Amino acid sequence: MKEDMVVEVHNIINRLNQKYEDRFEFYFTGGYARNENGFRDYDVAIYDTKDDNKNWEYLLGEFYKKKESDGKPIDAQISQYIPEVMKMTGKELYKNRDRLVKRYTYSDKDLSKYNGQIRKDWGYVKYMNIDGNLWEKEIMLVKPKHRKMGLDRVFRIYKRI
Amino acid sequence: MPKQIYKIDQFHGGLNNNSDARDIAENELSEAADVMVDELGKITMMGGIDAQGAAARTNQINPGYGLFQFSHDRVDGHTSAAAADDPETGADYFAFSEPDTAGTVDIYSAEDTTWGSPITGMTNNTGGLRKDAFYFVDGALRISDGEFGNTNVNKWYGYTYAKLFQTAAGTPELTLSQWSLENQELKSFTDLSITVDLNDCSAASPSSGETDVDKIILGWWTAEDGDWNGSYALGVTPVYIGGQEGPITEAGEVTLFNQILNVQVFVCHPSIQSGTVATHPLGDNRIIGINIYIRSFPSEDWYILKEIDLKTGGKFGWDEYNTTESGAGFWSGTADIDCDSSVNDSSGAALQNASVCIFSLAADTEYASTTCVAKVGIDAAMGAGRVGILRISGFVSTVYREVDISSAATITLSGISVVNPSNGNKKKFTIELLDENYGLLEKQIQTIEIEVDADAEPPPTGGGDEDEGGYGSGST
């Protein structure tokens, strides 16, 4: 566990847990969860047990443009596929790597300018505004950059916060 | 003057035979016989009387105290037996106190027309006969002795249902489905006579001399490249049904130097009986979780470190542990892999006697898009279903591969696509074998000479390696 430095993430989550009780599950994923040296940001994956996007904009907005105590940004996204993906073995993830999945993110910028564009390191990404600053991002389960790293053959790590 | 209508439709103030009839409130009654006003706006007949069918109960009575009615989804509340698995067809109950030193509260079940004495232990009469007060909420009966000269503690009597210590396949080691009598207070593990110990599991899991009945062991070990630095105290709390916690019991202290802290929880039980653990090992049937807390010296503030679910455990569920397995699950490499000449260093020698390594490289020129072969030598099986991750850093991108570490073997991982780094006589590559939580099992620094290629160009640099691009912008 490397919880010592992640003060801000815990503070935000504590506040959200007080507001929403046990509704949302929070996980570390990405380079930080993989204990990589030189990870770039703190990826926080969120699962809504009620699957109701009514409060998602507020929830994600709480993380928006926030930085951890070491100055690295916090990147929070809601991914309703987490329970399914966290059970996948490396082989199962590989079989599903082309599957299009949806993540939800917060931005006060117009993300749709990339709508339908082929992007070098994502392969495919499509943004759609849901409401206000809440955006839906449709992407492949494993992006090409991570395939080159072999992460399409390794079970995905989600560390419960 | 024409007649006017004065409407009276509220009666819930009930009978008031204290004040004069002209002085009572509008919603009160000056007389009432055989009627009920418990529903707002209604006066209903009280109903008849019926024989309750039970044998008479001879109890001492403290007048004004000790009788209470409740209903419950579970039947057989007048008895309490382990693994009873009582049906949810519903029953009505009377609670009837025996307020003397017998110390019981008897329960009558209308469904079985039978009395029982499942609530015991309220035996103290120092201040006189008990004055039991009852409270029923969330499906459980609470009994408190209102005679404060007595030393009786409050009791909790309810139905406990939980499938505890489920394996990865979902099979519980202990299924609780019974009426349970507990002290109402949410106690700490210390108060429940449960010992909490820290155990350094760096080299071995707890031994037979370290495990014991009524004991929780927090096994801990460290890994490199962490952020923990200093002395820390670890503590645990019991988590009861409804998410309420007892006080913290301190387990002990650990000192860390820029390390990662791993903690594994062992809940001791007097015997290993696969699938048939008969009693709750933590002394209270209401306990369904353990919270682990940490405190950094000299601070007095505790922070929650991890919530342990006694039902489902973590990603891999709960597993039985026998102290005969204290050496199992610890990494041991073969240290016998001699690498191919294609990965020679500048002195013309390849790495020898390795447990993890880049065994060969198809092309050794700078920025070549090529493939490598990696090998992992496992000297002792890590356990059924165990999966490791091989991480190789030093190429243009870090690469990952899954490794089956469940059996002793030398695993060859072929055809790993890589892009070589820039040229150098002593380019350093880091090969790490990681466990399921990305904790380090084995680390090898390997030096390989990468040749010059005058025509080669470095690959374009992309964004970060993370899943996302920062603030959800997708701008990687």
Give an overview in words:
The complex is a heterodimer of chains A (161) and B (476). Chain A has one domain. The longest helix of chain A has 14 residues, at 7-20. Chain A is globular and about 40 Å long. By secondary structure, chain A is α+β, with helices and mostly antiparallel strands. In chain A, strands 5-6-4-3-2-1-7 form a 7-stranded mixed beta sheet. Chain A has helices at residues 7-20, 30-33, 56-61, 82-85, 90-95, 144-148, and strands at 24-29, 42-48, 74-79, 100-106, 125-131, 134-140, 159-160. The N and C termini of chain A lie close together (10 Å). With 476 residues, chain B is mostly beta strands. Chain B folds into 4 domains: 1-49, no CATH class; 67-153, no CATH class; 195-325, no CATH class; 341-450, Immunoglobulins (Immunoglobulin-like), CATH 2.60.40.10. Chain B is 0% helix and 42% strand. Chain B has no helices and 24 strands. In chain B, the strands form 7 sheets. In chain B, strands 13, 14, 15, 16 and 17 form a 5-stranded mixed beta sheet that branches. The model of chain B is unreliable at 463-476 (pLDDT under 50). Chains A and B meet through helix 2, strand 3, strand 4, strand 6 and helix 6 of A and strand 14, strand 15, strand 17, strand 20 and strand 21 of B.
SSE string of chain A, helices as H and strands as E: HEHEHEHHEEEHE
Sheet with the most strands: spatial strand order of chain A: 5-6-4-3-2-1-7
- Could you give the distance between the termini of chain A? 10 Å
Number of E strands of chain B: 24
Radius of gyration of chain B in whole Å, from Cα? 34 Å
Q: Which stretches of chain B of 5+ consecutive residues score pLDDT under 50? A: 463-476
Number of helices of chain A: 6
Order of helices and strands of chain B: EEEEEEEEEEEEEEEEEEEEEEEE
Fraction in helix of chain B: under 10%
Strand element count of chain A? 7
Main beta-sheet annotation of chain B = 5 strands, mixed
Oligomeric state: heterodimer
The secondary-structure class of chain B comes to mainly beta
Counted up, domains of chain A total: 1
Which two chains form the greatest contact, residue counts included?
A: A-B, 59 and 48 residues
Mean pLDDT of chain B: 89
Q: Cα distance, first to last residue of chain B? A: 87 Å
State the shape of chain B.
Answer: elongated
